Amino acid sequence: MTVVALDIGGTWTRVGDLARFPTDPDYDRELAMIVDAAGRLEATAAGVSFGGRVTDDGTVRVSLNLRGHEGRPLGRDLAGALGCPVRVAHDATCGLLGEAFAPGGSLAGVERCGYLTLSTGVGAAVRLGSTVLTTEAGHQIVAGNELPCACGQTGCLETLVGGRALAERLGRPLDTVDDRTFWISYAQRLAPGLVNFALTAGLSAIALGGAVALRGDDLWRPLWSEVARLSRYNRIEIRRASLGDAAPLAGAAVLAGGTAALEVLH
């Protein structure tokens, strides 16, 4: 069985270990580049990690960073082009599948767990036993936050910790920010959202992935401290995604390979 794993994010697209290129906001051009990279593999199944909400059949419902993809039948189009079954899920859902079910994942064996991706935007998913559910934890409303979000709401967590929103306000990418006080403030904004996410779903552990979460101790030490301060009612483990930026690809492979024992709710 030859499985192809794809990761279509708001900024970059990856085709397994074969190719990485900037995501094209034009749906047809993006599809053509993916097929050019993956088509020669003669895959028997493909899984797609996508930066937005999708339907059960892989049609794009909402993608704040790829508006031109909305309403397009991504799963059906890729299946036709690649000649194999294709399953599509939100990138955070694939990140969770990777960390929970792929070898070396940080959430292995945890029945009630979550995954939060801190990247261009903020995506989230939960595992409750045999059910995996895409959520919108990044769009929870934060009291006192008056910043408008691309989703149309005001006050979303994503406006405070999402990579694109912060880069626009800072005037430079987050990976160029080395100011320790900035990351302490970032951790203080993120921690309440993580605790709320965990308490709402009854989670015992959350793994953080995405480009922002891959930073070093300048983020993690203040974040662990702030979460510990806030989560006195129910202790929550915040873990680094051990698969790093490979988690969505690993999860896409899990998705493609068959998850008969799991119900994936989009």
TrEMBL record:
Coiled-coil residues: none
Give one Pfam family, short name only.
Answer: ROK
Q: Which InterPro entries match?
A: ATPase_NBD, ROK
- Report the SUPFAM superfamilies cross-referenced here: Actin-like ATPase domain (SSF53067)
For this chain, the family text in UniProt reads: Belongs to the ROK (NagC/XylR) family.
Q: What is this protein called?
A: Glucokinase
Q: Which organism is it from?
A: Dactylosporangium sucinum
